[in-house]
Each structure stands twice: as structure tokens, then as C-alpha cells.
Specification:
This protein is mainly α. The protein has one domain. It is 65% helix and 9% strand. It has five helices and four strands. Helix 4 packs across helix 5. The two termini are 13 Å apart.
Amino acid sequence: MKGFLWRCGITGLAVLLASQIIPGIEVGGVASGLVAVVILALLNATIRPILYLLSAPFIVVTLGLFMVLINAFLLVVASWLVKGFVVTGFWPAVGGALIISFVSVIANLWVSEHGQIEIVTNRQTGRKIRHIN
């Protein structure tokens, strides 16, 4: 559960960053931002795997670029469901999906399933492994 909360927090920061960078993505307030993050997390946990499975041939043919369109679609769906969270069109959704995906992937590399921050390194190169609770 702790890992899920960390990932929701990371997604929240990514959505906030996307709303600041991409014109066409607006967060009306803290409450709408939090609800949008929770809805987006639920959509990503439930609907995104089904969409990935159904569109697997397109994902393979486009070398994974179709996943960006799926993420953009889920961002638009979240904006339909949450009052105060607005995505105004296709290109802002794609830009927001790219930023949210990039920030989430980079930040989630350091968070384990148990919510610990991990720094993993190779002993041969002299890098250290640390777990922070």
C-alpha cells in the first residue's frame, strides 16, 4: 500500500508539472488535482492493461508509440470525469501523456513495491545499494 501511495504522489507531481508546462492542461485547484490523480491511477490500474492487450499489434507495429496515444486517451477520460481538470485537445493530451509518463518512469525507478526508496548499484563498479524507508 505504501508503494501505491508513493506512486500516486509521483503521478500527482507529474500531472502538476504537465499542467504547468503544457498549454491546454489545467488543474482548477488542489481538490480537483487530487481527484484527477486518483482517477488517473485507477484508470491506469484497470483499463490501461486491457487497452494494451487489445492494441498489442498496433503497439508492436509502431514500436511502442501507440502506448502514448492510449495514455493520452486515459488523460482525456480523466478530464471528462473530474470537474476542474481540463485537457482541451489531442495535442495537449499527447504532450501531457509524454510528460507524465517520463516523470513517472524516472521517479518510479527508485520506489519499490513496498514503498521504499531504493538505490541499486553494481559492486564491480563501486556503486552502492541503499534502501530508505
